[in-house]
Design goal:
Layout (H helix, E strand, L loop, with lengths): L1 H20 L1 H19 L4 H31 L5 H38 L1
Helix pairs in contact: 1-2, 2-3, 3-4
The chain binds adenosine-5'-triphosphate.
Adenosine-5'-triphosphate binds next to helix 4.
Length: 120
């Protein structure tokens, strides 16, 4: 039981580390806050909330995996190596794909509502 609780403590420490050290993570946090505020302002429905929450998890989780990979690569290959560069580029590319898809989902949800508000 103690081991189980400790695993939550370690996970919490990982979340705290990534949010306090990674600039990209702070940017994601600001965007997440803006999306949540827009969700309330535009009164999005439960399905739209679920899609927004999934996108947030995708981008923040992806960024955390990217940071973990960067740390492992730096540890395993502090010197220049094509495979180290490839691993970092692929991890960064994965975050970019998640972010682009999330922006598209955000546009599909919010743009019609913004348009409706401006038109009406
Ligand atoms: N050890 C290495 N060997 C080869 N290429 C590397 C190595 N380390 C970094 N690179 C190249 O430099 C790029 C940037 O690496 P870096 O570690 O600065 O990542 P970053 O995305 O800028 O990190 P951060 O998110 O901390 O700013 C990598 O995507 C990779 O192309």
């Amino acid at each position: 039981m103690r081991k189980r609780i400790l695993s939550f403590v370690y996970a919490g420490r990982g979340i705290k580390t990534v949010f306090s050290t990674e600039t990209n993570m702070k940017i994601h946090l600001v965007i997440t806050a803006v999306v949540i505020a827009c969700g309330f302002v535009f009164k999005i429905n439960i399905t739209e909330w679920c899609l927004c929450l999934l996108c947030m998890a995708l981008v923040i989780g992806g960024e955390m995996m990217n940071t973990a990979i960067e740390n492992i690569v730096n540890l395993a290959s502090p010197e220049f190596h094509p495979l180290a560069g490839k691993a970092k580029d692929i991890a960064a590319g994965a975050v970019l794909i998640c972010a682009i898809i999330s922006v598209i989902v955000g546009c599909l949800i919010f743009l019609p509502k913004i348009w409706e508000m401006l038109a009406g």
